[in-house]
Amino acid sequence: MDTVAALDVGGTTIKAALLDAQLGILEERQVPTARGADGTALAAQVTALVREMGSGTSVRAVGVVVPGIVDEEARVARFSANLDWRDVPFGSLLESRLGLPVAFGHDVSAGGLAEFRVGAGQGCADAAFVAVGTGIAAALLLDGRIYRAHGLAGEIGHIDVGHSLRCGCGAVGCLEASSSASAIARLYSERAERGVDGALPVIDLARDGDPVASAVVSEAVDGLARGLRTLLTLLGPEVIVLGGGLFAAGEYVVAPLRERLAASLTFQRMPELRVAKLGPEAGRLGAGLLALDLLAKDR
């Protein structure tokens, strides 16, 4: 039986599991992320975690995904603000410690792979998985294959959607500066002069008629519609899978997004908008799929 270790590494937490060939969870752990700019602390932690989980089990390969800009072919994290990494060859670093094949990838790309294979995007040849969280990024499925461009594809959070807010990347007008979950919480807090814990409380306030919350959510949806229009114009996906906690609000957010996107189109094909099925498990399942694909490739 092909058993793989799958790890979704975030800036604060690692979600790890042993998976079988059907992505069934055999064992799972969640631990704080070890920090260090050269990646060695995390490599040591992942090595210990895989060996601990795999005790008594024959682990055949490991899949690890992280946020940032990841060159999956070279297995190098070019940049990850959440981990304070630049040009860390984490795939090779981990493989040399474990003595096992290691697939190293990007968290959103892996989440998209999982949604396309076993989630809301099944059966599509041309689709996008758009994850709205702290930032906004997309995984792109073109002619049945994930398009990565050495980790540079899919950064739709940095499309200019026409506002005057400065983004963390240094540019003005970026989609994620107005429409990410963190931006929604920040903008509401600034305007209402009261703190909120994430985007969903802002959406709840908007449902209850709070005018500040309603304006912030409306502006976020406008930005998303503009960003998705650009994505459609360039790539023409038949389906867009919407992921991230923002879409836990369901049709309250999806319905106006669908309406505003449709109203903005001229010649572009209106895609089917689907809410992601795998939720926060998408990245870890995608890491498992990367490991299983690596085994299949080596046979």
Characteristic terms for this protein:
299 residues, alpha/beta, five-stranded mixed sheet
So how many helices?
9
Strand content of the residues, in percent?
15-25%
The biggest beta sheet is recorded as: 5 strands, mixed
Radius of gyration: 19 Å
Order of helices and strands: EEEHEEEEHEHEEEHHHHEHEH
Q: Order of strands across the biggest sheet?
A: 3-2-1-4-8
Low-confidence stretches: none
Distance between the termini: 14 Å
Describe this structure in words.
The structure is a single chain. This protein is α/β, with parallel strands linked by helices and 299 residues long. Helix content is 39%, strand content 24%. The protein contains nine helices and 13 strands. The protein has helices at 40-53, 90-98, 107-118, 176-179, 181-192, 199-207, 211-235, 251-264, 282-298, and strands at residues 3-9, 13-19, 25-32, 59-66, 69-71, 76-80, 85-88, 102-106, 127-132, 136-142, 145-147, 239-243, 272-275. The chain has a five-stranded mixed sheet with strand order 3-2-1-4-8, with helices on both faces. It has a five-stranded mixed sheet with strand order 11-10-9-12-13, with helices on one face. Strands 5-6-7 form a three-stranded antiparallel sheet, covered by helices on one side. A hairpin with a 5-residue loop joins strand 2 and strand 3 (25-32). It is globular. The two termini are 14 Å apart. The relative contact order is 0.15. The mean pLDDT is 95.
